[in-house]
Amino acid sequence: MNDSRWASIDAFAEQNRDNILRDITRLVAVPSVEGTPEPGAPFGRGPKAALDKALEIAAELGLDTHDADGYIGWAETGPIADGQKYLATITHTDVVPEGNGWDADPYTVRVRDGWLLGRGVADDKGPSILCLYALKYLKDNGVALKYPVRALLGTNEETHMHDVEYYEEHFPMPAFCFTPDAEFPVCNGEKGGFSGELVSPVFAGGVIVDFVGGVARNAVPDRAACTVRVPASALKPTEGVTFEAGEAGATVIRGWGKSGHAAMPEGTVNAIGLIVRCLLESGVCTPAETAYLEVLRTLHASTDGSALGIAAADEVFTPLTIIGGTIKMDGGRLRQSFDCRYPTSTNGETLTAAMKAACGTAAALEKVEVKVPFYIAADSPAIQTLITTYNEVTGENKTPFTMGGGTYARHFPYAVSFGPEHTDIALPDFAGPMHGANEGTPFEKLIEALKIYILALLRLQEIEL
User: Dihedral (C-alpha) 169, 171, 172, 176: value to the nearest 10 degrees?
Assistant: First the structure.
């Protein structure tokens, strides 16, 4: 590294190792799954408590802080004048539900063989702390800033991103923003999003008593359970499925899969799909139930959408993905949510039509949401600044990429996602992916990411935005 500022950056990061681990631990300790809205806490007590904790940490680091009515907050290097261009980072302090399969308390950070384990260490509480320390470096070193820097802290990224929508409505947007909520080196494009629910009719006198599974629409469920009014002897043994006695002669069918992020479903096993297959192969359901389950079987048959007739690919993005996330009984109807990430070669209208065709008269398509694909040219000045910085620090020769995950970047006029995950690092047996059990991230890579972020923020000061 031949940048004259590197020695100072390196020393700062190394000196703050223990403090960074302490503060990640403090933030992870606050459960922050979306809950019931309350005054001053539009997304529930958990996300608001996590935002409060992050702002508390920021204030301890000597940064100016602001809470925008509980929707979003930020720390900054100093006041930003009206009309002044500024840089921003944006992370989120809300998390997906902890789910099943953890080896220990999800909200207590553990360190094992150099890895941090805990809900949010990777997505996105660990990166939130990194951004605060990057701003601390700028302020402690009295860096003259052409563009002040604001570290935005969201509270609703995992569900609807209403937090950043609120920010856009009430505050001027940054000249450039990056979000540490994906993989390195630089992600300059995100697939479109297509989501909704497949809803059954009311099953009067049906066999299915209850069906529950999944923790979030955008996560492949590793566990599900369905209670049916038939004995276990009437059910066909199915791989990944177990039976146990329920009440009044009923049987509880349990599916045991493998969880993962909806945008990266390769290698996952959907527990809901396992139970659906068991029920259909057993032939115990009513005609109406069977017809609905056939719709679900089509949904779960492939994560590339081929069974639904919606498989798609282009030259910018990886192929389309689709998963079933959660299922529940609500008012006598089953509701199966789904999450689809699609490239530019298809669109929301085409996907909606295909899904309605798959439903036929057996199910209804409800709560449809569509987000168009997002893309920023890789040769734009800010993106080139980030990719050059990453390559110089790591000694690699990477290029920007696109992905299926959805981040805050698509809500800003000029933004990308920028680490800190590394897809080339294999997860150890004791660690899991983002949104999975035992969520883990290597601590050394977080420290390296902090150095990259500081240098990138300094270099962004040197270009015209």
Answer: -90
